[in-house]
Amino acid sequence: MQPAVAHRDEAPKPQGPPSSLEVRQVTPYLGFLFLLLSTATLFDGFDAAMIGFAAPDVRASLGIGVGQWGAVAGLTRLGVMASFIFLFFADRVGRRWVMMGTIIGFTIANFATSLVTTTAQFVVCQFVARLFLTAELSLAIIMVGEEFPARVRGRAISVLASLATAGVMVMAKLQPYVLLAPGAESNAIHDLGHTMVSATHTALGLSSDGAGWRSLYALGVLPLGLVLFLRVGMKETRRFAAAREVAAGRPKRTWGDLFREAALPWRREYRKRTAIVALLWNCVFLVTGPSTVYWVIYARETLHLTPYQVGDIVFWGYGGGVAGAFVGGWLIDRIGRKYTCASSYILAAISIYMLYHVTPIPMQYTWMIFTVFSFAAGNSATQVYASELFPTEIRATGFGWTTNLAGRVTEVAVPIAIGLLIAPLGIPGAIAIVAAGPILGAILVLRYAPETRGMTLEEIQVRLRA
Description:
Layout: H1 28-62, H2 66-82, H3 84-90, H4 95-113, H5 119-147, H6 150-178, H7 188-204, H8 212-219, H9 224-230, H10 238-246, H11 255-261, H12 268-301, H13 307-332, H14 337-355, H15 361-388, H16 395-405, H17 409-434, H18 437-448, H19 457-465
């Protein structure tokens, strides 16, 4: 049977691939693919933690005030929202080619951050870095969701997402060796980063202030050369390849057609699922946005912890996050998406409030572990929803709308608002205002989110259309 041909002025109606594309077991290639894609989430956590750990030193070096830092963080996170454009084109040219482009773009932007001399330059470089890295992470989750069997899809996505916390753990242990206190003895890691930055400054005819945070950003690009080499072996996903064959007989699309296709997730048949996932992410980022931006500043400047203590608390806290992703992944495929997501959100709201209001160091360890554990489990369930509720032809576009664009409004806006609230309320008081966000998310999940446990991607579409 020949596929239906869409009128030139209409966006093609999504038409899913056959259920025969569903594999029954994890093959050696899927294991290889998972290994390659896991580097995307590892570097996402690595880079996200880098800006947090470096915040006090960047502020000192570039002359940025504590209230201004919220605006800086918010502006750089606009890159997350702009990454939507890459996901839109991933539904047109393929997941693999877009993935390769994001790796190169992130590498260049992240290293360029080590060379900046003004706040504006820092914002621009980190905006571009987040733009590429977020698209890379999103595509990794989409590819795992499209390739892995339904019975383990939730766990596969959860474990993949957990490696972002592993990236934070690596950064937590690395940063004390690079962000040296005045008078501290140097070491091989610090010297390597310093040499990379100094050599580049000299080659470009620039002066360098020798700040340790520059070395941190320079060192962050070293493993990416190996990643780029390894990903040559990555294939296009079977579902996207099948969908592209279905679309092969259609007329060539104009730019106007492409523009209309970008709005497909908001059409009547998809609008509800787009709205619910976007709302869930906004409830999460209402808290995680400002807490990520301000906790290191709070710990070092209010609790007067050393960089080593801060790194150790984050290391063990994000160890709890890895556990949370594994537990969440197991629960997602056992009791379902709805109850795993809702219960994790509630625990997260309680934990984040306690983290900023119980100051003894042992309690900082405890509540950091609970906070990251619960957010990791809840985020895993939300990632699964975002990756499986749309048909293959618009899956990346739908993921982009829900997770990277409409779902990130609070991540960008709230840190800026918190920066304005710090003066009258202090950091703990400002965080307390937004701690109810995940509780609202739990209510939305229980009321509106579908349950998709154990269903193939094609079965999910049949159910949602019904």
